[in-house]
Amino acid sequence: MTKVTAICQECDKQFEYDLKPGFPRKYCVECGEIKKASFAERQQPKEETEEFPIERPGEAAKTQPQAPEKGKNASFYISYAKDIFCNLVNSDNVNAIDCTKAMKDSGCKEISFGVESFDNDVLKMLNKRTTDKDNAKALGFTEKVGIKTRVLFMIRTPGQTRHTVRKNIEWLNRVPYHIIACSSFIPLPGSDTWNNPDKYNIEILNKNLNDYNFYFYGNAGGDDNIKDIIKIKDRSLKEFNEETIEFRTYLDNTGKIHKG
Q1: What are 257's strand-pairing partners?
Q2: Which CATH number fits domain 109-254: 3.20.20.210, 3.30.750.200, 3.40.50.300, 3.20.20.70?
Q3: What is the pTM of this model?
Q4: Is residue 225 classed exposed, middle or buried when 0-12, 13-18 and 19+ CB atoms within 10 A define those classes?
Q5: In terms of Cα–Cα distance, which of 252, 182, 254 is closest to 215?
Q6: Alpha-carbon torsion (141, 144, 145, 150), positive or negative
Q7: What gap in Å lies between CA 111 and CA 100, rounded to an integer?
Q8: Distance between CA 24 and CA 3 in Å, rounded?
Q9: Which of the two residues, 130 and 91, has the higher pLDDT score?
Q10: H-helix segments, the chain
Q11: pLDDT digit string (tens) for 47-83?
């Protein structure tokens, strides 16, 4: 095994360990033991109390979602509801609708969905573990209960084909959403796409970070704002850039594009 040096993410102390491929360590031995003990304690069965009743599968719910008290920070309630929603969105319609209603009752006003693309080939390449229909379903449930939705989107990505923009436009014309924030794909230093571009069938053309503009779609510039950062290996750069302009023109015309 290879001996490596790292900085503990808990105590910031330097430590050495034997690196196992694919299993880098975040914590030194002492902090690691503390983390393990804390995790084990959380897994112990909790005692039922009036304040924290235990709800078991098959039983009627003992508590109902409550909106946070006026003046109190609602982030905990909203985050909790979001976790539940993400777990159930692929469940049956009744569960998903009930869960989305719980989010609304908790004080949630808007949900940002990391859709990224409505092209399943792109989603697979990005390892999103969702499909076009999953994303449409989530947006539909949210619309039904009256929560606003923000679609987080990405273009110029690995896996993009000449059909990607068409698929994106077709789905965006069908699904409900209130605002869309679109960014350009950037291979950040240290990421897998940066280290292994061949794995994603891309060529990194420009490694000057000063040219890395995530928010080309949200800016009011023209064609000269495009920076040639990556190229799909088996596609022409000219076609890639033309698709970028086509999609930005479409988003501008929706009146829903976030600019900032």
Answers
A1: 180
A2: 3.30.750.200
A3: 0.64
A4: middle
A5: 182
A6: positive
A7: 10
A8: 11
A9: 130
A10: 29-42, 75-88, 93-105, 120-125, 132-145, 164-172, 192-195, 237-254
A11: 555 555 554 544 444 454 454 455 444 444 444 444 4
So where are the chain's domains?
1-41, 109-254
Dump pLDDT digits (tens) for 216-244: 666 654 445 678 899 999 999 999 999 99
Helix (H, G, I), strand (E, B) or coil at 66: coil
C-alpha 133/C-alpha 149 separation (Å) is 16
- Report the amino acid identity of residue 200: Y
- Per-residue confidence at 198, pLDDT binned at 50, 70, 90? very high
Closest listed residue to residue 98, CA positions, set 110, 109, 83, 88: 88
Strongest mean pLDDT among 89-93, 143-147, 155-159, 213-217: 155-159
* Integer Cα distance of 86 and 80 in angstroms: 10
For Cα atoms 107, 110, 60, give the angle at the middle one, nearest 5 degrees: 50
Chain position carrying tokens 């004080």: 107
Q: What is the phi-psi region of residue 201: left when phi exceeds 0, alpha when psi lies from -120 to 50, beta otherwise?
A: left
| Residue position matching structure tokens 């490596």 | 4
Question: Among 160, 59, 57, which residue's Cα sits nearest to residue 118?
Answer: 160
Rounded Cα distance, 196 and 163, in Å: 25
> How many residues appear in the chain?
260
Asked whether the beta carbons of 191 and 212 are under 8 A apart, the reply is: no
Q: What's the mean per-residue pLDDT of the chain?
A: 79
Q: Which amino acid is at 28?
A: C
